[in-house]
């Protein structure tokens, strides 16, 4: 299909053509079919705009239904054909290649709105006709006194020729006359109808005020009333009508008869019910959909604090793998089987199962003992999923993660409850899946905060909310400052200063770590140049070195080497002044492709440090193939040296690592040095450099330069 404005207009006209060809044969109009199509074209345009709008406006659908009645499409078949066209062709010709499932849901809701608007307009038209008939009947009665034969003929013509059912009864309810239309509605003969009483026609679905209004009318307290009423036919089927009953008075104004006008709305009601069902139920599984579930949940939550609820939010584990490997058809069959099993778990009247979309389902219970009932419901769901599902000769294992929310109504909105259940479900999935977890307000708050930080990250980088602190690297031999590690911080507008542990994992998950890491490298290298330019004898040969952390995502970024070279060249800083720190876990099992950029950087003169060494359980023999020049020993190995005497096991481990590193021509840096005893012990063991609060906490770059000058001047 063409995607431009002209193409969209062509598809719209094609839809209007199909619509006019379907509806024109059953429309009472003097227009030609092309003229009728031009009349439908603006209605088609309104439907397309409503379909594609950001928020669906049901009033547009109702307006289209009203316009159909105005265009004389009053035959019941006209509405049915119009709705069939909208169902089959609106998304096809006006969908603009949007999300099909959402568009079809919108199309169903538009059909419901069209039918509602059509019903309302037709009812108004019918009421006008009924009023005219009633007036004609009253006029005919008045004329009886003057010209009986002429008026009788006129009234009989109206009475028998009307398309709606008309009946007359006395004030006791005994039926006196009915017309042919009413007899056809009930499927009975005139003989059967005579002698019946109006009060015989009660129905279980009568509105409470129906017979109260009737009593007021026959007592002369009201002139007419209008209700929707159901009647039983002799064959047991139900006739639904719009019923208007009027009081007829004699020449002296005394009540004498009652006149009933009936419009058969059975087909329209069934159509509305079908459209309502389609709009509130999942087309694949037949379960209630998100719309109906939210209606039920909001009703439960609005019932007051005496009401309690329990909700299970289920997401299938590994469903994407089944879809990808066996195809969507197999995935759909699996979802249908899961839906059947879930439905069997919620059989009580106060339990409901719905499909929210994809492989996500919810089960709701409103039993007073929900704290116990919801746990049992979750257990039943897990048990129901135990048996494998057989599809195309394969037995598929089905498992699910469930988040449970339980509590009193009235405290949270439906959206808040579902969000809590969703967060809890993902907590169950993160814990390994095939389990259920109970909602925890503190865990919810942490998850919401994480989500908020994740969404704020891109703008934070643009608004320059990040800054860098520097922690000095001190030579253990002479105590001089040899450089610093760059540690990024986030000055969040609401949460204050956040450490890297709060946002670096989020940046890695979203991919923002690449531009953030590039910014940290640029700022750090520029700072190294400023330290060099401020100069002064720092007590050792060479400039202060800057250590910058690299995340695993940055290692796989294809532009890592070139960007590093460009940053160093723009700042005028030698590669030897830069050390890139990579965690040991990121290099476990690394292949040559992953190590290639690190090797190129090492060949240029950039130092590569293996950070958190000793925590990754890597094979020490791998050190031979890694392009590293520095081992950064994890703080867990040196904590035992804070007290005297030091832990002898830790001493042996550190001594062995230092000996191994030096034999491989690697320098050793120790993190987390907090006491002078630690520093002295590490110096004796042969460690080269150290960092930690004993020397200085991370701080602004000026502090590092001051420390370096202080060391130089002694």
TrEMBL record:
Residues of the EAL domain: 450-712
Gene3D superfamilies reported in the protein's UniProt record: 3.30.70.270, EAL domain, PAS domain
Domain PAS: 151-221
Domain GGDEF: 307-441
Domain PAC: 225-277
PANTHER family assigned to the protein according to its UniProt record, in alphabetical order: BIOFILM ARCHITECTURE MAINTENANCE PROTEIN MBAA, DIGUANYLATE CYCLASE DGCP
Protein name (Swiss-Prot/TrEMBL): Bifunctional diguanylate cyclase/phosphodiesterase
Phylogenetic placement of the source organism: Bacteria, Bacillati, Actinomycetota, Actinomycetes, Kitasatosporales
